[in-house]
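Q: I'm teaching a short session on how sequence maps to structure, and I want students to see two examples side by side rather than one. Could you give me a first protein with its sequence written out and its structure tokens following it? Keep the formatting plain so it prints cleanly on a handout.
A: Of course. Example one:
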Amino acid sequence: MSTINPGSPEFPHRQISNQLKDRVRHGEWQPGERLPSIPALAELFGVAKQTVQRAVDQLRVEGILITKPGSGTYVRGTRRRLNRLSRGRYGLHRGYHADLAARYRQQLVRVGREPAPPEVADAFGVRDGTEMLVRRHVVRTDEATVELGASWFRVTDVNGTSLERLEAFGRPLYQEAEEAIGRRYAQATDTISARQPSREEAEILQIRPDTPVLHLLHVAFDESRKPIEVAQATWPGPMTTLTEEYRIPEQPAEPDPDPGLSLA
């Protein structure tokens, strides 16, 4: 029988969640496999059902478990690894990443005009609520939806172009945008933050409302530093790993007087 240590400073439900997590990590329960019921786990650990429920709730917040109403609690799928944030969308040769296409399925769900939310309006330098064209998509694996995304454009830039159509283009969006708008993507900035999800985001991503999400704001500019596209992406935080790979200069660089690090 699995046990908890009553003399440990760790709360019993945390001891149980750690043991359950270790079992998942060591492969005793595979992604998609259903866990024993709450009463069965309570008997296994020799604790009250409420204690086990708190442990399961904790692992749901961390994105390790997922509860399907009327069915039970399951091990969630593997973590999504995001390499180099939005740079991957352009590729080494400004092309499509076939390896990402093999693992993730992107589906276009809406194309239309909507009021720009504050962060998008700020990026374009326009008033909140300015009407813009948005192309919304979701990214799915076999197990779940892992990304909510949106790409915003100025209406005057895309009016009458292919970008207004509800269709996938068979090539990266930025390549279609460059041809339709007549401006080349030259540089971009990525801003990533953690926050609580909206109710709609939590429902689509199948996470608890108190599970944090990672949110990316990607702003792409032309040669004159004028924004072409502002893209948003939202991922379930506990299920997402961000990896940045880079070379280290041989000679130390001059110290940056303003590294631009914000802890706000």
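Q: Perfect. Now a second example for contrast.
A: Example two:
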Amino acid sequence: MPSSLSRRQLFVLGLASLGVWGMGRQAQSQIPPAPVRRVASLTSLTADILYRLAPDKLVGIPAGRLLEADPRFQGITRLGLGNQPNLEPIVALQPDWVVGASGLHTALAERLQALGIPTYLTQVDSWAALEATIATLAAAVGVDPDPLLREYGSLLPQELPPVRPKTLLLVGTQPILAPNRQSWAGDLLERFGADNLTAALQSQGQFRGYVTLAAERILEANPEVLLVVNPEAADPLVFFRARPFWNQLKAVQTQRVYGFDYYGLVNPGTLDKIRAACEQLAQVLGREATMRSSQVSYDKTA
């Protein structure tokens, strides 16, 4: 399992790759006249979207494990890690357009724009932002975004459950971090019918979409469902049962603790990761809503 430091670094770099820095200058996004013929992507998500839209136009992608083993991307030039792309190979590709993340790639975008290379910076911190990104990329490469939008839109519930389980999503435990509604994770929780206990809290930290919690506040809220990102043990329920204060929570006592992958739920990562997160949320929260509804019905007839 990753160390506490590597978890923190992963979280910070991941949020940066989404373009959700709480502050800082922003390079002006540029969209050249369509259709763009050669696109370099600096994030795994936009690389995946571009490949699905127009694979012949994607000429550069970030290095990293999310794309490394995917046979679709074999033979496409790697431009360095997503948080440290290299200027020289990007320029050498002679791209018509470079797509990156707001905040993370702002300084690089300014250098590319000074060289006359149009650069577009995304900020995918909600489902609406994902759809807008898909539509923008599709327009630039001259293809219809609707098939891809429909495919992924179908992953969302058609209607919310009548009973919403009190849910706490833990992004980290040292410190204890959870998403409010101004984040990708918080937006997903709402769309799948969770009563996110930290949705309305305001961040006092670097990232506007995540808040730091004290143990006392968690005990007071007493979540019915606990979702844990990249849990520190193979069985997160066993882990939290053995921890002081956590073992007092209703979610732990009723065995409703679920582990989730960081990619897909906190950092979209790729469209496949988003699909996996949506399917797991539908399974977990759908089951919880059914249990709550059954309990409410039983209480009314008892």
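Q: What should students look for in example two?
A: Point them to this: The mean pLDDT is 87. Also worth mentioning: The chain has 13 helices and twelve strands.
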